[in-house]
Amino acid sequence: MARAGLSPEVLVTAAAELADEIGFENVTIGVVARRFGVREPSLYSHIRNANDLRVRVAAKALGDLADQLSEALAGRSGREALLAFAAAYRDYGRDHPGRFTAARMPFPLDSPAADAARRHSELTRALLRGYALGEPDETDAVRLLGATILGFVTLEAGGSYRHHPRSADASWNAAMDALDVALRNWPTAEEKASAGAKSPKPGKDL
To answer: Collapsing DSSP states into helix, strand and coil, what is residue 164?
Structure first.
């Protein structure tokens, strides 16, 4: 019988909080059950299994982050939008490290997590409208932003930048400047074709 007060939403919220406290990889059905002082079987009337719980946490994390990104973009365009968008990602990663990890887990394409992930793509494209990129350049730029921002935040969270006198903030600002320059000066199809024609052929001495 389901315990009064428990629901999928309550369990997912608790699991998300635990992810930030102890790490997403350490969140189990048992850990969540102990948070509520119940036995594991009490949870199975609300969630199917551990993977179901993890995907639900991922969906919550992605949805919450999408809300913050949407708020960051409101009324902004171009460089200002880029900086606000990237800062929202970084802040979320710092404030909610476990949920940020959850947001990057694999999930079924027909799950709520996938729907939330699509919001991220749509918001990124909304940001890029300020740079007036057509296709396929816009898709390439979406992937560039994802690789740069998510890569930086992930490495920073893992402590990769702690052992160098150059501060992470300084490198972050430099990366944002570089992204803005790249987006404002994205090569046209003609420029790409011209550059390709000038490149040395494979096997030719340089």
So the answer is: coil
pLDDT in tens, 105-157: 888 888 888 888 899 999 999 999 999 999 999 999 999 999 999 999 999 98
Q: What SS3 string covers 106-150?
A: CCCCCCHHHHHHHHHHHHHHHHHHHHCCCCCHHHHHHHHHHHHHH
Please report the DSSP string for 3-61 in residue order: PTT--HHHHHHHHHHHHHHH-GGG--HHHHHHHHT--GGGGTTT-SSHHHHHHHHHHHH
Place of tokens 């606000």: 84
CA 191 to chain centre: 32
Give the pLDDT confidence of 73-96 residue by residue, as tens digits: 999 999 999 999 999 999 999 999
Task: Give the separation between CA 16 and CA 155, rounded to whole angstroms.
Answer: 21
Instruction: Delineate the domains of the chain, giving CATH numbers in brackets.
Output: 8-186 (1.10.357.10)
Selection from 60, 45, 152, 147 nearest residue 107 by Cα: 60
Q: Rounded to whole angstroms, how far apart are CA atoms 81 and 178?
A: 15
Per-position DSSP letters for 70-96, written without gaps between them: HHHHTT--HHHHHHHHHHHHHHHHHH-
